[in-house]
Design goal:
Number of helices: 4
Pfam families: Polyketide_cyc (PF03364)
Shape: elongated
Number of domains: 1
Strand content: 35-45%
Organism: Arthrobacter ginkgonis
Structural class: alpha+beta
CATH superfamily: START domain
Distance between the termini: 52 Å
CATH class: Alpha Beta
Protein name: Coenzyme Q-binding protein COQ10 START domain-containing protein
Mean pLDDT: 82
CATH architecture: 2-Layer Sandwich
Strand order of the largest sheet: 1-7-6-5-4-3-2
Order of helices and strands: EHEEEEEHEHH
Length: about 170
């Protein structure tokens, strides 16, 4: 059984990060190898992915969902496994600096109070059935791919946040 745990900090609050992550039809924009994701019902999505030059399909079933906090799912088919995404609020470095500089008294002299970022932690496990899957897990290729996908998600969300703020200001 292969296991991965990777994290990334995103410059949005957990509710926003969670909302963007649950837009399954957008997954091909930031998850490498994902061709499409289609919502079947409230807890099931159908995935088409390209893996090692082959197209594969499978269904994923959400086992537990806590908006803004957690998504836990199990997949069946050729790419069976399970995973959890945790969305945790963390204080941004600039907010931590402002708090250290001005104290926790609330006296910020016009500086905004502490804002939050989100630490997204992905925990994945699956049976590595093929030789390529076994080597991918053993040599860290899968872990690097998950880390890269999380960074792409961060870029995806933060760009849309900036675009939305720009549009709202016009």
């Amino acid at each position: 059984m292969a296991h991965i745990q990777e994290s990334v900090e995103v410059n949005v609050v957990p509710a926003v990060a969670y909302e963007y992550w649950t837009r399954y039809d957008a997954f091909p924009e930031f998850l490498e190898g994902v061709v499409s994701v289609t919502r079947v019902d409230d807890t099931t999505t159908h995935w088409v992915v390209a893996v090692h030059g082959e197209q594969r399909e499978f269904d994923t079933h959400v086992i537990e969902r806590r908006p803004g906090e957690l998504i836990h799912w199990r997949s069946d088919g050729a790419l069976g496994g399970e995973g959890t995404l945790l969305f945790e609020p963390v204080q941004s470095r600039s907010a931590a600096f402002r708090e250290a500089l001005h104290g926790a008294t609330g006296e910020h002299g016009g500086v905004a109070p502490a804002d939050t970022h989100t630490r997204i932690t992905a925990r994945l496990s699956w049976e590595d059935k093929t030789r390529a899957e076994h080597f991918g897990a053993a040599f860290g290729t899968d872990s690097r791919k998950v880390k890269k996908d999380l960074r792409h998600f961060r870029e995806y969300v933060e760009k849309r946040r900036v675009d939305a703020a720009t549009t709202d200001a016009v």
